[in-house]
Specification:
The chain is an alpha+beta fold. Helices cover about 20% and strands about 35% of the residues. The chain contains six helices and 14 strands. The strands form three sheets. The protein has a six-stranded antiparallel beta sheet with strand order 2-3-1-9-8-10, with helices on one face. The protein has a six-stranded antiparallel beta sheet with strand order 4-5-6-7-11-12, with helices on one face. The protein has a two-stranded antiparallel ribbon with strand order 13-14. It is globular and about 50 Å long. The protein starts with a strand and ends with a helix. It comes from Raphanus sativus. This is Stem-specific protein TSJT1-like. It holds the Pfam family DUF3700.
Length: about 250
């Protein structure tokens, strides 16, 4: 998968930005999408207008961690991996027996967006298995990313020379667009446009950036660790319209 989101849609954490530089503008003249297509000739790219773009391919995938892509009511989702408790989740979200993991993620997000009874960390924590996913809601301009607690599915994120967010499971693609300003997406975490990066394993704790050093000894973005001593403030109660609540996810 590849996703590039405009900095006004999804702002990458400042800690991802390396002082070493070396990044380019991933969207200029189709630079990074063209590179991705050269590696995965069968990739299908979806232009999201001023918000960015996403690309997905079924080539070169791990059969044990398959990729799935779906679009439903202007929600685009790429899922990779396997959810073990999918029968329970299908029932919880009122889906048919033929529904796949990517459909479950879309419906879980829809319930969350439309003021469902559970907070975002609980929704992601309910997914039991090996997974990573990326969802973009065209209606609210919200990005939703997550990776399982063990980091079973490779997923990298970074920021390009213009501050746009770049996401892919292909580390060389992320390097191409972000230079030294990238890192593995933190396991056991999720990211939204409005709420930023949070841990679904330890939702009451803050995350602190830790500079990441590559094999050559250079600082290369940052990893994020749960700060056992720093607690988040209590969440505000869910009030307001669907549009307003979607901005608090």
């Amino acid at each position: 998968m590849l996703a590039i989101f405009d900095k006004n849609v999804a702002k990458a954490p400042e800690a991802l930005k390396s002082q070493e530089g070396g990044s380019v503008c991933a969207l200029k003249d189709g630079f990074l999408p063209n590179h991705f297509a050269s590696i995965y000739p069968g990739a299908v790219t979806t232009n999201l207008g001023s918000s960015g773009l996403i690309a997905c391919t079924l080539d070169k995938q791990n059969p044990l961690l398959p990729r799935l892509f779906a679009v439903n009511d202007d929600m685009f989702c790429i899922f990779q991996g396997h959810i073990e408790n999918i029968p329970f989740l299908k029932q919880q979200y009122g889906l048919t027996k033929t529904a796949t993991e990517v459909t479950v993620v879309i419906e879980a997000y829809r319930a969350l967006r439309d003021r469902g009874p559970y907070p975002a960390d609980q929704v992601v924590r309910d997914f039991q298995g090996r997974f990573a996913f990326m969802l973009f809601d065209c209606t609210t301009k919200n990005v939703f990313l997550a990776a399982d607690a063990d980091g079973s599915v490779p997923l990298f994120w970074g920021t390009d020379g213009e501050g746009h967010l770049v996401i892919s499971e292909d580390v060389e693609t992320v390097k191409k667009g972000c230079g030294k300003s990238f890192a593995p997406f933190p396991k056991g975490c999720f990211f939204t446009s409005s709420g930023g990066l949070r841990s679904f394993e330890f939702p009451l704790n803050e995350l602190k950036p830790v500079p990441r050093v590559d094999s050559s000894g250079q600082v290369c973005g940052a990893t994020f660790k749960v700060d056992s001593e720093a607690k988040k403030e209590s969440a505000m109660p869910r009030v307001g319209s669907v549009q307003n609540w979607s901005q608090q996810i």
